[in-house]
Design brief:
The protein has about 250 residues and is mainly α. Helices cover about 80% and strands about 0% of the residues. The chain contains nine helices and no strands.
């Protein structure tokens, strides 16, 4: 959790989980409005805590344009489709970050001239729309990555099924040291390959679930009045946050 991504994943999970708890608490209080417990003021204001965490996460992202610049300068993928997706994602991420930074700084009184409340609201909405473009393209990227992997697997299967030249097996056996050792080496290599493929498959599905959870949230914040209630927002955000947190935890373990 010492990395910036780990801290953000932890705070995001905490923030959205508190949002769900706060919504549930309000619902239960509404049901039991006449009880003594309902009339007792809560010791912790969960709404204020979620706003504080959200504010801190946005503050930390103020320097996000630097990492986006580094991403833009990195070596693009070899596949032409993935290259084009990456270029548009970089542009969408830069737009998102610039608009969010402007709206956040104006909201806190740092930017004054030309940043009316109406302009701030539009900046928040358009930053979310830029984020929506990024998420949508990430789903397209994942589809393309899966297509490439399936094509590669099919090509490898065809090579494996092809008949070896006569006498090649005998030559390989002599080099390795016998049929038994050759078979053992092949099995070990196959096991490593299958393990790598399984891990890639799990990582692929984690990314799909995270983006599938983020997609409705990007649409929710892309309109001024929103689409979902706090409970749905919290549930979707918690889902993405927990998976991201598990990824970071596994990477740093």
């Amino acid at each position: 959790m010492s990395t910036s991504s780990g801290t953000d994943s932890l705070l995001a999970t905490l923030n959205y989980t508190l949002l769900v708890l706060n919504t549930t608490s309000r619902h239960l209080t509404h049901i039991s409005r006449q009880s003594v417990a309902a009339r007792t003021p809560p010791r912790i204001n969960l709404s204020a805590l979620t706003r504080l965490i959200s504010d801190y996460r946005i503050f930390v992202r103020l320097w996000g344009l630097l990492s986006i610049y580094t991403w833009a300068r990195s070596t693009p993928p070899d596949d032409t489709t993935l290259q084009r997706i990456t270029y548009v994602q970089v542009a969408a991420s830069a737009a998102f970050q610039a608009l969010e930074n402007g709206a956040y700084l104006a909201q806190h009184g740092v930017l004054v001239r030309g940043w009316s409340e109406e302009r701030q609201a539009k900046a928040w909405v358009w930053s979310s729309r830029a984020w929506a473009v990024h998420v949508a393209l990430d789903l397209v990227r994942l589809w393309r990555v899966r297509t490439i992997r399936l094509d590669e697997a099919t090509a490898l299967a065809k090579v494996a099924d092809s008949q070896e030249p006569e006498g090649s097996h005998q030559i390989q056996a002599e080099v390795v040291g016998g049929d038994g050792q050759l078979e053992k080496a092949k099995n070990t290599q196959q096991e490593l390959l299958e393990k790598q493929q399984e891990e890639e498959e799990r990582a692929w599905w984690r990314e799909v679930i995270v983006n599938a959870a983020y997609a409705p949230l990007t649409l929710h914040w892309s309109v001024e009045r929103g689409i979902f209630g706090d409970g749905v927002v919290g549930l979707l955000g918690s889902t993405a946050g927990v998976i991201r947190l598990m990824q970071v935890w596994k990477a740093t373990a």
